Each structure stands twice: as C-alpha cells, then as structure tokens.
Amino acid sequence: QRVLLLVASDVDALCACKILQALFQCDHVQYTLVPVAGWQELETAFLEHKDQFKYFVLINCGANVDLLEILQPEEDTFFFVCDSHRPINVVNVYNDTQIKLLVKQDDDLAIPAYDDIFRDEEDEEEDSENESDGSEPLEKRRRFEEEVIERTMKRRQRREWEARRREILFDYEQYEYHGTSSAMVMFDLAWIMSKDLNDMLWWAIVGLTDQWVQDKITQMKYVTDIGILQRHVSRHNHRNEDEENSLSIDCMRIAFEYDLRLALYQHWSLYESLCNTSYTSARFKLWSVQGQKRLQEFLADMGLPLKQVKQKFNSMDMSLKENLREMIEESANKFGMKDLRVQTFSIHFGFKNKFSASDIVYATTSLMENIEKEGPETTNFIKALDSLSRGNLDKLHQGLDLAKKQLRAIQQTVASCICTNLVISQGPFLYCSLMEGTPDVKLFSKPVSLCLLSKYLLKSFVCSTKNKRCKLLPLVMAAPMDVEQGTVIMVGIPPETESSDKKNFFGRAFEKAAESTNSRTLHNHFEMSIIELKTEDRSKFLDALISLLS
After folding, report:
1. Other beta carbons less than 10 A from residue 319's beta carbon
2. Measured between alpha carbons, how far is 380 from 387 in angstroms, rounded to an integer?
3. How many CB atoms lie within 10 A of CB 544?
4. In whole angstroms, what is the distance from residue 206 CA to residue 360 CA?
5. Rounded-to-integer distance, Cα 383 and Cα 470, Å
6. What SS3 state is found at 7?
7. Whether residue 129 has pLDDT greater than 60
8. Region Disordered: what ranges (predicted)?
C-alpha cells in the first residue's frame, strides 16, 4: 500500500515530514511526497493521485476545513491529518471512518458536543401520512389540530436548536490559533513505537522553535513543551565519563541551553545580530538617531570594544566569549530588556559545527521562500527539506546567508515604515501597506516573510508610539502580490500585548468583509488570516473590515 504525503510549506511541517519519512523507512513503507503551498494545490494534488492512492497523510494542512466536502473522496479513501491549525473543523472531529486526526491527548481542543451540532434528520418528517380511516369527522378534526400544534412546537424547537448551533459554532470557530507542533506529535508517535532517534528529536525541537520564532504559541506553551523535550534530550544525550575522549567526528549531540535571543549571532557579528533582531532593535528604537546612541551606550556598558563586536562572532577573542551571555544579560537588564535569554537547544556535529535551533528555523525558512528563481516551484521545498539533514551542511550555510539577507530586509523595511509614518490607525486596527517599488518588496509577497515583517513592525510600532490606545491594536499589513494580475496579499495579526493568547480573529473577519462587499478574494493559504485580493477591491474591503470590527 503506497501512501501519499501532502506537506505544507512551513518549517514545522518539514520537520514532521522528516520524522515520518524516517519512520516509513524503518517499516519499508512506500510513499510519494507532494509539497502543497495552499488549498488549490492540495485539491489539485488529490485529484491527480486519488486513483492510485487510498491513504493520504496531510501535514500542517487540512484540519480546519471540512475535508470531505472540499475533496469529495470515495468511500474507501482514508486521511491521516497531523495539523497544528486550530480550531479543528467539527466534521473532521466526528467523522470516525475516513478521517483520523493525530493530536496530543492533553491538547485542550474545546470541541462542542455532538448533539449540539448534528441532529438526526429522520425524526423530523414523520406523522405526516394523511389518515384516511373512516372515523368521525369531529374526531378527525381534533386529531388534525393536535398534529398542527405538535408540528408547530417541533418547528419552534428546531429553530431554537439551529440558533443555538449557530452561536456555538461561531464561538468555536471565531479565533484561529495553534496547537502542539506537528513535529512534536510525530516524535511522540515515534517514541510510543520505540523508534525515536536523536535526529528525530532534533527535528521535533526545530518544529517547536519554528512556532516560537513565528510567534504562533504563547510563552507558557513554549516553556511547557521545551520541558517535555528536555526529558527526551537528557535520555538520548547522556554520556559516561570514560567516553569523553571517544567523540567521533560525525557524532551528533543535543544540549539544553539558556541562550541569547539574538538571531543568528553565532554565524554573524554580534553588532549585526543586535541590529537585526526584532526584540533588541524595537527596544533600542534603532530606526532613530537616539536609538543608535543607546546601542553604543549598551555596548560601552558591557565593555566590549567596537572592533570585537563588529567582526565575525567566530573570530572574537576567546576571553570575551567565555562569559559573553552573562555580560549581555547583565547590561540588558539595565536597559529594560528583562528577557533577553531564552530556553532553547543547540546541536553539535562533530567538533566544529554548532547550531542553535533558531538558526535552523531561519535558514530553512529562507531557503523555502527564496525569491531567486532556480527551476520549478518545488526546488525550494526540496532544498529546505534537505537542509534539515545533517549531511547537507553546505545547504544549511546557504540558508543562513539567505536568512541574514532576509532579516536585514525586514529590519530596513520596518525602519522605513516607522520613519515615514506608514502605520496608520484605522479605528479598530492599525494598517500598513507596502507600495510597489519599495526595496525587497518581492520578498514580502511570500506569506511567512510577510508575517515575520508584520510581527516585527507591530513590536517596533508599539515601542515607538506615544498613543496608549494604539499600543493595544492589532495590525493589518498589505503587500503587492502579483503586479501583472493586480493582486495584493494581506495578513492580519493580533495585538502585541504581554498577556496575548496569540488567538487571531482576522480569518473570520476577512471572510465576512469579502462576502459583504463581493470583493474578489482568494483564501488559498492554510492560515486563515492571510488573504489575497484584487488591488482595486482593496479600499471597499478595508471599509467593510473597519465597520465589521468597530
């Protein structure tokens, strides 16, 4: 029995896919892998392969829509869905035969009860046979009146039930959010089957880190999941004392670290990393002259010479690197950056290669959304997938170089948006639109890059604005998608607050606004809060969104 793997284009999905591929290899299962970037590709892939395959595995796609309605599969087709998108569509939950959901048992899904949403149709239509028995006309009339009353009561109950159902479903589907990372769910599966390897564990770590880097889960959830993975790490990576000298060149070791939240700093210079990490650049307000001064003061406070800070991290003096994290943390506290360190993991390949989990996330993401065309659409996906294997360090380094370019582009765009006041308050939300011809605008037609940009921009805006009300608003960001077709891509992200639960209401709001204005939109992304629409429909769409959310 061959299996068809349909994998979404995000790092967590890639990691889950790597774990599953390794498991399939253990059990000699034959499979075909098809990357899908959106609903249209998913449907096309299904239609092309539905005759050859009976088993489909969907990774990070498919849980939040009614699969059977969209794909119209045959009775003997089975779907295994491992998807971190929430809420899960209720039909998928209650369909036991064709759809199997892979979710962690302790995930709180808050699914409405079966009887509140589904109702058997047959008990509606009985009692309507007309009775032609020869009983008295009077009795007939009385029975008829009783029936009318009973039917009216039934109809009223039905109406009440339907109103309640709408309300329950609205509450359930109103917000979009993310559950446990799919790579972690896959790793759990491997662990239950006693087939978990250190490589799989590393992929699970990268999958979780992807959710954290993309800001999809709460700090609380991240720390909890790190704790779960830490137990596995100590189980896989403990060594006896006498083995200390027998480290082979190609061995791989995972270690828990309390590391700096600076993007790619071990593969860059400390200065570049401080400038291009959203956390530090927003806190220092680096787009202003004042902010640049503060950065210089910060470096002086640590007592690090500029020459050292600006050269490659690898070539910095060993004496400085020894307790660099402590030095940085101490100075950061004085400058109001309380949480510059974060719990994470790093990996060592042999003696000289060391990467932290977030390095891998940035590198893989930029390989996947690389805008320099090289062959067909799927090449980027395959490259990104390959960069996760430890044999392909050259691909990983290529990814790291691309990631630096991407982070620089994001930071420069954020600075220009703030300096030219492009972020405007529309009432219920903030709005920012990138114009055609802005530098790097092509990069931001890609969903993950646009989301990262929006999140960085909102963080920076919240730090720069004096307006208390604006600090609590969500952001809608638009960028040109395809100039020839005249489309823009739009993303909505929730407010940037300390206690944010990362739940996003824009998916539903976008749908409603598009419906009410007949805007020509395309909901092709697996994230409901990303939408494509025709440029000339943009203003009426935004007006509808404003009145909807006011």
Report:
1. 8
2. 11
3. 20
4. 7
5. 41
6. strand
7. no
8. 120-141
Whether the pLDDT of residue 245 is over 90: the answer is: no
Given a contact cutoff of 8 angstroms between Cβ atoms, the answer to whether 46 and 58 are in contact is no
**Going from the N-terminus, what domains does the chain have, and what CATH number goes with each?**
196-408 (no CATH), 422-549 (3.10.310.40)
What is the number of other CB atoms lying within 10 angstroms of the CB of residue 46?
23
Q: Which residues contact 148 (CB under 8 A, 6 or more apart)?
A: none
Residue 496 CA neighbour count, 13 Å, CB half? 22
Return d(Cα 188, Cα 185) in angstroms, integer.
5
Instruction: Render pLDDT for 280-294 as a digit per residue (tens, 0 to 9).
Output: 999 999 999 999 999
- Tokens linked to 534: 């025709």
Of 416, 459, 404, the closest CA to residue 279 belongs to: 459
Strands 530-534 and 487-493, how do they pair?
A: antiparallel
Of the pLDDT bands very low, low, confident and very high (cuts 50, 70, 90), residue 117 is: confident
Q: Output the CA angle 316-357-80, nearest 5 degrees.
A: 165
Lowest mean pLDDT among 10-24, 374-388, 414-428: 374-388
With 0-12 / 13-18 / 19 or more C-beta atoms within 10 angstroms meaning exposed / middle / buried, residue 183 is buried
Q: According to the model, what pLDDT value does residue 128 have? A: 46
Q: Which two tokens stand for residue 134?
A: 């020869």
Model confidence band, residue 133 (pLDDT cutoffs 50, 70, 90): low
Mean pLDDT, rounded, of the chain: 89
Residue 62 has pLDDT above 80, yes or no: yes
